[in-house]
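stage 2 :: seqdesign
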C-alpha cells in the first residue's frame, strides 16, 4: 500500500493535482494543511482515493481538525500540520510524545517547509516539506510504502 503525503501548497492547487496524477498507485492521500481548499476539490475529481485532510495555521476558516489519527493496514498514523505541536521551533518532541502515547507508529507533519524523515523508537516521523515554497532544497512531497516486511518512507523532489 502506498500513502501520498502533501503539505503547505499555499494556493497552488495545480501543483497538488500534478502530484496526485503522478502518484496514481497511492490510494491514501494525506494533506497536512496550508491551504486546504487546494485539495478539497480533488476529493470529487479522484473518487477512487481516500483523503485525510487537516488544517494548518493559514487555514483560518476551515472546519478541518488540526490533527487526527487513522488506522491503515495494522498501522496507526498521526497526521497534523504541526503548529499545535510546536514543530517550527526546532523540536518534534511533543509530536513524538503524543504519537507514542496514542499507539501510533507513523507521525506525519508539515508547517516547517523542510522535508525530513526520522525513525525513533519504533516511530516513523515524516515531514514531506512544501510542494510550493520549500525553505530548504527543492519543493517536495512524500510517499510511504507499507509493505509486508516494513515501512519505507521517501521524500520526492519536484
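stage 2 :: out
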Amino acid at each position: 500500500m502506498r500513502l501520498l503525503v502533501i503539505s503547505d501548497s499555499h494556493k497552488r492547487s495545480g501543483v497538488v493535482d500534478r502530484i496526485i496524477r503522478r502518484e496514481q498507485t497511492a490510494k491514501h492521500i494525506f494533506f497536512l494543511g496550508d491551504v486546504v481548499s487546494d485539495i478539497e476539490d480533488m476529493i470529487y475529481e479522484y473518487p477512487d482515493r481516500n483523503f485525510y485532510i487537516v488544517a494548518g495555521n493559514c487555514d483560518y476558516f476551515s472546519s478541518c481538525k488540526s490533527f487526527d489519527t487513522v488506522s491503515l493496514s495494522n498501522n496507526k498514523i498521526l497526521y497534523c500540520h504541526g503548529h499545535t505541536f510546536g514543530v517550527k521551533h526546532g523540536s518534534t518532541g511533543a509530536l513524538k510524545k503524543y504519537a507514542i502515547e496514542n499507539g501510533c507508529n507513523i507521525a506525519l507533519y508539515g508547517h516547517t517547509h523542510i522535508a525530513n524523515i526520522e525513525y525513533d523508537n519504533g516511530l516513523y516521523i515524516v515531514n514531506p516539506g512544501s510542494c510550493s515554497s520549500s525553505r530548504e532544497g527543492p519543493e517536495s512531497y512524500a510517499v510511504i510504502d507499507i509493505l509486508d516486511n516494513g515501512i519505507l518512507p521517501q521524500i520526492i523532489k519536484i
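stage 3 :: structure notes
- Helices lie at 13-22, 37-40, 42-45, 93-101.
- Strands lie at 2-6, 28-31, 50-53, 67-72, 75-80, 106-108, 116-120, 123-127, 140-147, 150-157.
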